[in-house]
Amino acid sequence: MPERYTIGTLARRVGLNVETVRYYQRRGLVQEPPKPLGGIRHYAEEHARRLRFIREAQSLGFSLEEVGDLLSLEDGLHCREVEDIAGHKLTTVRERIAQLRRIEAVLTVLVGKCHGNRGKLRCPLVASLESSGS
């Protein structure tokens, strides 16, 4: 017989909060199992797999909307569409990395200016940031 979980057990098993599981249910990302008359809902391993997928996809930067798109294509017949979604995310990540590298380079220079600043002179970092807007 397959293992069954209460929502609390399911949430702990996948490393989520119960309210997060409920939120995903409200968003339509996870099906809510039927509630037997006078009983409690029981979740299956398929629910745990789906929740782990959502959690991992979010850790890779996918929004919940994108996660929903990926889940709607999970039948194995839409690999091209999944590849397109993931490819777009990869492009976004690469652009963000390039932006962060530019920020790092500018901050390295500005922090270096501060480091060499002695006495009661105006802070070079603050002065640079104030003048960069003009």
Write the layout of secondary structure elements.
Blueprint: H1 7-14, H2 18-26, H3 45-59, H4 64-72, H5 79-115, H6 124-131
Helix pairs in contact: 1-3
Could you explain how this protein is built, in words?
It is a single chain. This protein has 134 residues and is mainly α. It starts with 6 loop residues before the first helix and ends with a helix.
Output the keywords.
single chain; 134 residues; mainly alpha; 64% helix
Number of strands: 0
Cα shape = elongated
Taken in chain order, the helices and strands follow as: HHHHHH
Low-confidence parts = none
What structural class is derived from the secondary structure elements?
Answer: mainly alpha
Percent helix range: 55-70%
Major sheet characteristics = none
Beta-strand content estimate: under 5%
Q: Tell me the span between the first and last alpha carbons.
A: 70 Å
Radius of gyration: 24 Å
**Average pLDDT number:** 88
How many helices does DSSP assign? 6
